[in-house]
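Lab notebook, bench 4. The sequencing result for the construct came back, and we need a structural model before the next group meeting so we can plan mutations. Quick request posted to the team channel:

Model the 3D structure of this chain.
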Amino acid sequence: MVWAILAVGIILFGPWAIKALCKRVAVLNYLGSVFLCYAVGLALSFFFSAVNADMSLVTMLYSVFVMLAIPLILFSANLGALKRLTRPMLISFSLGTVAVLVACISGFFIFMDVFPDRRTAADISAMLVGMYTGGTPNTLAIGKALGSGETIMMVQTADIVCGGAYFLLLISVLPQLLGKLLLPYRSPQTTLNGAAGEFTQEVSGHQKGRVYFTGILKALGLAVICVLISIGTALLLPVEEGAGLFSNIDRYTAVIMLLVTTLGVGFSFFKGVRSLPGSYDAGQYLILMFSIGMGLCFDISRMREVILVLAVVLFIEAATVIIHIILAKLCRIDRDTLMITSVAGVFGPAFIIPVARALKNDEVILPGILCGILGYAIGNYLGIGVGMLLLGI
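Done. Here's the predicted structure in token form:
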């Protein structure tokens, strides 16, 4: 029991310490707090494994964290502003989504016999669909929905390596190379002033004081309601013969995740919910708590699989980018639009600004953030759908 309490304390306060270190140390900030939380959890897993600690409480907690994080992040999404996106942006983001689906499904068929069972290959492909249309929250939700366990951590670790290499290319040589291949950017007739106001405020700023923390509590309460409704719905579904009522929570995890996502998207259309300060920050902190918890529970015997997962992620990410570029060329999409929608899908809203700065084009920042928001909203549906499809093959 003592080790379980210690593990919970690390999960609760570890992300705060890591975020503080990232602000002070440039190298740690580059690695990112999500990766560092996984790394810390993984390092400590050797200790907890040595003392034979019971991690069942930790497993239960991090499953709850990811269910709460999804609606918290989606609450702040101004999806109504999507109607103001320009046609090239929508087309390019759609092409990027097609590229992700083709790459991930192809990756499954190429690597499905390399793993001990095909389920692992299907889970990886499904999680990467969520990763490269939305982001880390989608990956975690899809992994939990499919019961992927330690595979989630291996995918996240591999993506840090591959994603870091792609990001360096985006801010260095790719603008020049793609400038020779694709059309130049043309400024649209309409702008997106204020279209993503609420979300960008959550991403770039932190409101302080009583209003901020009150907003977090309200958003968290609403997220709890979303989770309870989703779990309650799962409990009403048919029960497997001979199993207890609560076995439905494991059996219908995918249904629960999709319901939580749907409720999060639905509530985001209410301005009072969307404007709650701190909901996005709270969701991201829960993702960090999940990351440490997942690291603490990692099965060390599976470390040898990380290199193989790295090869799969490298193939799928490279294929996604190459297919997106080819489709953009065929559809006469300009360089800046292609690059910013690729960033929105592969990395999410937080990476839009540095790439826009590299392109010297601030006009694409807000449209890019909106595409990232759209990716968060659709990632779980696509990823879980692809996972179910591949598992049925």
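The mean pLDDT is 85.
Will bring this to the meeting.
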